[in-house]
């Protein structure tokens, strides 16, 4: 196929040959310069984590923990040998909670042991007081990728739900449930899912930040979720009961008491059991993790699961990304490059200030606020100098297998964050790890982050001229 003229189609004239000749690997849904960089970084880090685990150095415990977790995740023989055994007790526990009253009585322990629950707590800066952390309350996601899809019954929806049902039934069978139980759990979970969809915003609504901003008083939270004992269980893990929380999905909590009742409790139980199985399957055998990813790959048009070592690295990265990123930045980026790009960004921000000072169409008050925002912006280039205190609380012991280790790390992470509710926001925390090929501006913390992963050709090099660096930086910054 011949390429168009530049004046007819600039994009295809420049990229047409690459687009025609590039083959997307079967374990990916996209390829790009960024994904190529990500692959090369991961290959380096996998080799390094193997060396670190083989010859541990006590000086960097978070990195040692990352290497140990990677080794557990990468032990295919042990994981295949265990099969579904590590998750069976958790599934049996859920199946044994026959009534809503039994579920409520068990809830504090379920929260502590990291079971899937009707409310997912996480901590972040308060949208109305960005200097302090607030408890945010999320909920389940629908089976279909967009809640708006439930407004119509068409062939696409039917195909998606059929793919999900087939995956789940097979996974339940692998976990030891007979065909009658498989059919019951799949049908009941789909019934809960359809009722849930009525209270979940469409994807287009989630693109608007205000959708996530729904402050509730603690009293209102108790009125919505107290019948399940969720507020009481969370309060026991926080330094003090907060006066307010934030509901991530506006309509979900007010309707929780109709979504989960004594009469329809079996539907929630089925949803919980299946969600637990799907959440844990990624840490079981290779067959289990491949099977549990079938539906997502179906939606993405990705023929094959990601390679085993890539998967194992992802497990370690989920819990120790900052430790891995700091190591990557210090080892492959370096202090000189960090100082260089930081100085360049400061110069650019100074030029923004000059432009604002000479601006003729903004009001004086607006200009002063914009200048103050520039002056207080936190610049995060390359990698963090110090790790977030969370990492001092995470421990990976040698003995436990992968799933118990993951559950322990999840518990340690949740316990740490719940202690931060109402506390000042730590602006030294990085929103992206040092090895990530990306960049961002965080309006909640007023910081700009360019990890070391993106600060390499074709985007940056310490050896380039200042003009080359500035041009590439500005292009990438604007594209973000």
From TrEMBL:
One GO process term, biological-process aspect: protein processing
SUPFAM superfamilies tied to this protein: Metalloproteases ('zincins'), catalytic domain
Gene Ontology cellular-component terms listed: plasma membrane
Recorded superkingdom: Bacteria
Domain Peptidase M13 C-terminal: 438-468
InterPro entries assigned: MetalloPept_cat_dom_sf (IPR024079), Peptidase_M13 (IPR000718), Peptidase_M13_C (IPR018497), Peptidase_M13_dom_2 (IPR042089), Peptidase_M13_N (IPR008753)
Ranges of residues in domain Peptidase M13 N-terminal: 7-384
Cofactor(s) needed by this chain: Zn(2+)
Alphabetized GO MF terms: metal ion binding; metalloendopeptidase activity
Keywords assigned: Hydrolase, Metal-binding, Metalloprotease, Protease, Zinc
Annotated family: Belongs to the peptidase M13 family.
Protein name as catalogued: Neutral endopeptidase
UniProt organism field: Lacticaseibacillus paracasei subsp. paracasei Lpp123
């Amino acid at each position: 196929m011949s390429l168009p003229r530049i004046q007819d189609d600039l994009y295809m004239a420049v990229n047409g040959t690459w687009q025609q000749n590039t083959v997307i690997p079967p374990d990916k849904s996209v390829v790009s310069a960024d994904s190529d960089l990500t692959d090369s970084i991961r290959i380096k880090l996998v080799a390094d984590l193997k060396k670190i685990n083989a010859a541990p150095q006590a000086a960097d415990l978070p990195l040692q923990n990352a290497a140990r977790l990677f080794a557990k995740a990468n032990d295919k023989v042990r994981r295949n040998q265990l099969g579904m055994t590590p998750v069976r007790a958790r599934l049996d526990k859920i199946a044994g909670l026959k009534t809503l009253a039994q579920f409520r009585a068990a809830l504090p322990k379920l929260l502590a042991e990291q079971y899937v629950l009707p409310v997912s707590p996480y901590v972040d800066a308060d949208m109305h007081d960005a200097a302090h952390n607030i408890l945010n309350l999320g909920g389940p996601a629908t089976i279909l990728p967009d809640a708006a899809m439930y407004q119509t019954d068409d062939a696409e929806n039917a195909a998606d739900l059929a793919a999900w049902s087939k995956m789940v039934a097979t996974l339940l069978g692998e976990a030891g449930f007979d065909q009658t139980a498989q059919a019951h759990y799949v049908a009941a979970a789909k019934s809960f899912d359809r009722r849930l969809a009525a209270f979940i915003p469409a994807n287009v609504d989630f693109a608007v930040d205000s959708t996530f901003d729904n402050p509730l008083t603690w009293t209102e939270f108790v009125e919505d979720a107290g019948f399940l004992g969720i507020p009481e269980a969370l309060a026991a893990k926080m330094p003090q009961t907060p006066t307010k929380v934030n509901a991530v999905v506006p309509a979900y909590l007010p309707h929780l008491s109709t979504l989960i009742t004594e009469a329809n409790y079996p539907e929630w139980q089925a949803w919980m059991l299946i969600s637990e199985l799907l959440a844990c399957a990624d840490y079981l055998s290779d067959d289990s993790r491949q099977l549990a990813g079938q539906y997502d790959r179906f939606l993405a048009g990705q023929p094959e699961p990601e390679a085993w070592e890539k998967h194992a690295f992802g497990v370690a990265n989920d819990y120790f990304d900052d430790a891995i990123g700091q190591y990557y930045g210090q080892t492959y980026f370096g202090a000189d490059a960090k100082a260089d790009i930081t100085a360049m960004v400061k110069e650019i921000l100074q030029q923004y200030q000059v432009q604002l000072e000479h601006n003729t169409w903004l009001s004086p008050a607006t200009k002063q606020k914009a200048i103050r925002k520039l002056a207080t912006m936190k610049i995060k280039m390359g990698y963090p100098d110090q790790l977030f205190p969370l990492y001092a609380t995470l421990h990976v012991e040698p003995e436990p297998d992968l799933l118990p280790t993951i559950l322990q790390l999840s518990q340690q992470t949740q316990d740490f964050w719940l202690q931060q509710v109402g506390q000042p926001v730590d602006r030294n925390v990085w929103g992206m790890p040092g090895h990530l090929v990306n960049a961002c501006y965080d309006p909640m913390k007023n910081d700009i982050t360019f990890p070391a992963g993106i600060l390499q050709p074709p985007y940056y090099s310490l050896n380039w001229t200042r003009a080359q660096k500035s041009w590439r930086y500005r292009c990438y910054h604007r594209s973000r």
